[in-house]
Write a structure and sequence with these properties.
Elements (H helix, E strand, L loop, with lengths): L1 E3 L1 E2 L2 H4 L3 E4 L20 E4 L4 E4 L19 E9 L5 E3 L2 E11 L5 E6 L8 E7 L22 E5 L4 E4 L4 E2 L3 E3 L4 E9 L3 H4 L1 E12 L1
Parallel strand pairs: 1-16, 2-11
Antiparallel strand pairs: 3-12, 4-5, 6-15, 7-8, 8-16, 9-12, 9-15, 10-11, 10-13, 10-14
């Protein structure tokens, strides 16, 4: 199976989560006059900033987890190095070998210091969830719908929130430069409740 990534936009990504990015052009360097009147943006810091309200939501569903171990909000940092790009049948691509999900929490990836026009991008690969069956082990009830996976290119000016229990590829950076991310989610320390993985056999080919 082969996929080809498209640019990451909120409208295309909406079934899986939220895209966070500034609506302001990089060329805008002074406070706008008159200030915007949209319901979700207000002036702040003595009219030197615009505050965009509720750009994403953190969800904690650990109250439904079997262990009853409470979760706490955590922030981790990942330094992600470029994935190997392989040539196969005249196509350059990355193999998607594993999908994971966090069944009781959203997970937000916020890139640090990466320019929008950097030659490094990151891949956002997601899949819907199939209805659970008795054939799957407990920790993957509701497996990924691999046939309907979607793939997106994201740049350094975009953060992304995966909805709770959304199957996704572990972070994959493509290009020449490392990308660092702050990752915000809930966790309770119970491995199978914090993160569930499935291996894809054969791997899905992400065409670049």
């Amino acid at each position: 199976m082969h996929m080809e990534a498209i640019p990451l936009t909120q409208s295309e990504f909406a079934p899986f989560g939220t895209v966070i990015e500034s609506p302001i052009s990089l060329s805008q360097t002074t406070f706008p006059s008159p200030p915007p009147t949209s319901h979700n943006v207000v002036s702040a810091n003595q009219n030197t900033a615009l505050k965009y309200i509720d750009v994403t939501y953190m969800k904690n569903h650990y109250g439904a987890a079997p262990s009853n171990v409470p979760a706490k909000a955590v922030m981790n940092m990942f330094s992600c190095f470029p994935r190997p790009i392989k040539m196969r049948k005249h196509d350059l691509g990355v193999d998607v070998k594993v999908l994971e999900r966090h069944p009781y929490t959203t997970q937000t990836f916020i890139p640090l210091g990466a320019a929008r026009d950097s030659n490094s991008k990151y891949l956002v690969v997601v899949a819907p969830t199939l209805p659970p069956t008795s054939k799957e082990p407990f920790n993957v009830m509701g497996p990924p719908d691999v046939a309907n996976m979607k793939s997106f290119w994201a740049h350094g000016g975009q953060a992304v929130t995966y909805g709770a229990a959304t199957w996704h590829m572990p972070m994959a950076v493509v290009g020449e430069e490392r990308m660092d991310f702050v990752v915000v989610q809930y966790a309770n320390g119970v491995a199978e409740e914090d993160c569930q993985e499935v291996a894809l056999a054969p791997a899905v080919r992400e065409k670049l």
